[in-house]
Specification:
Layout (H helix, E strand, L loop, with lengths): L2 H17 L3 E10 L9 E5 L3 E4 L4 H17 L3 E6 L15 E9 L7
Antiparallel strand pairs: 1-2, 1-5, 2-3, 4-5
Length: 114
């Protein structure tokens, strides 16, 4: 992640907190093989403002977004395994062929007032 990526994520978290909105923070915690992003890459899912950052795009990122929506609703963190080794439903030259584990947690200004 670049300094600009970190700044955008921080600004999005501050904006959500200031507005009293819950959002989700997704962080890649492990990778194996070739993946579009590496350990430490983060993405914020804010139901009102959309996405900031990326964990790789495509179908894998869609899985993480679905998880983030559940986490925002329930408050229960999830670990999502994104398997990019085979995609039988579509042909895509962008498929990297690796596996990523992504930790998804809720950021709730009512609980985390700092």
């Amino acid at each position: 992640m670049t300094h600009e990526d970190d700044r955008a994520l921080t600004e999005a978290l501050i904006a959500a907190r200031s507005a009293g909105r819950r959002c989700a923070l997704a962080t890649i915690v492990t990778t194996k093989g070739s993946t579009p992003r590496k350990v430490g890459a983060r993405m914020i899912v804010d139901p009102d403002q959309g996405l900031v950052g990326t964990v790789g795009g495509g179908c894998g990122e869609a899985e993480v977004i679905e998880s983030a929506q559940r986490v925002i609703e329930t408050g229960t963190p999830e670990r999502v395994r994104v398997d990019l080794t085979e995609d039988f439903t579509t042909w895509s030259p962008a498929v990297c062929g690796g596996v990523m584990d992504v930790f998804v947690e809720r950021v709730d200004p009512a609980i985390d007032p700092t």
